[in-house]
Amino acid sequence: MNLAGKNVVYLGGFGGIGQKTCVELLERQVQALAVFDLMPNEQILRDWQSKYPNTKIFYQKMDITQRPEIDAVYRAAVEHLGHFDLVINGMGCLDDRCIDLTIQVNLLGVINSSLVALNYMDKSKGGNGGMIVNISSVAGIEPTPIMSVYSASKHGVTAFTRCLAGPFFESTGVTFVTVCPGMTETSMIHDMQDRTIFKFNIPAEYAVSNMKRQTALACAQNIVKVVEDATNGSIWMLDVGEIKKVEFPVMWTPPMMQ
Ligand SMILES: NC(=O)c1ccc[n+]([C@@H]2O[C@H](COP(=O)([O-])OP(=O)(O)OC[C@H]3O[C@@H](n4cnc5c(N)ncnc54)[C@H](O)[C@@H]3O)[C@@H](O)[C@H]2O)c1
Question: 217 pLDDT exceeds 70?
Fold first, then answer.
C-alpha cells in the first residue's frame, strides 16, 4: 500500500510501538491519522500536529474491552474522515495474572475491532476496501511458556487474521496481515517477574533479560515496510530489527477449502 494520502486508524497509537509507528506513518504523508487509545496524550498530539500540519490528526478515547466504545470510535472516525484505508490493531497487554483482561484486550479486542472496521471497509457493502493489520507476536506463532496466557491470546490473533485473509472474504477487498514482533523495548516487557503465573526454575526476569530485543523504532520501521509491501494473508515476524516472512505448514485442510 502506498501510504501517501491514505486515512489511517491506529489502535494503541500512544503505546511504545504505536507512537513510533504513527510517526513513520506521518512521515509517509498520510492524509489523516485517527488514534484510538485508552488514555489521551495531549502533548504527543500537539507535537505531531505541529510537525505534520498537512495531516488531519485526531484522538478518540476508547477501552477496547467495551464493545459499545469500539462502535462509537469507528463511527466518529467515519464522520471525521469519510472512510479509512488502513487499520492497525496495535493495542495489547501482557500480564498473565489477569487472564480475562489479557483475552479481552489482545484477542476479543482485535476480533471486535477488525469486524467493526471491516463492516465500513467492505467493498461488497459499499466500502472502499483497504488493509487491516493485526499485531500478534512471536508468542503468537510459537508457544511461549513464560507468558502462556498472552501466548494463547496472540495465537488467537494470528489464527483469526489468517481466517479473514481466506478466499471467502475476497469480495470485501480488504487485505488482512499479521505482524509478529519479537521482544521489543517498551514498558510492556518491564517487571516480567510480576506478570507470570507459574514459578520457573529460571526467574522470569532473568529469562527475559537474556532475550535479544529490538528498539520500538526498529519494530515500527519494519511494520510500515510490511504495510507498504504485504499481500493478503501474509504473516511477518519482526524480530531483532529484521523482517522475516512466516510460512505455516499445512497440517489439515478444512472441507470447504478442498
Ligand atoms: N513489546 C514487545 O516486546 C512486544 C512483542 C510482541 C508483540 N507486542 C505487541 O505489540 C503491541 C504494542 O505493544 P507495546 O510493546 O507498544 O506495548 P505498550 O504497553 O507500550 O502499548 C500498548 C498500547 O495498548 C493500549 N491498551 C492497553 N489496554 C487497552 C485497552 N483496554 N483499551 C485500549 N487500548 C489499550 C495502551 O494504552 C497502549 O497504547 C501489542 O499488541 C503487543 O502485544 C509487543
Answer: yes
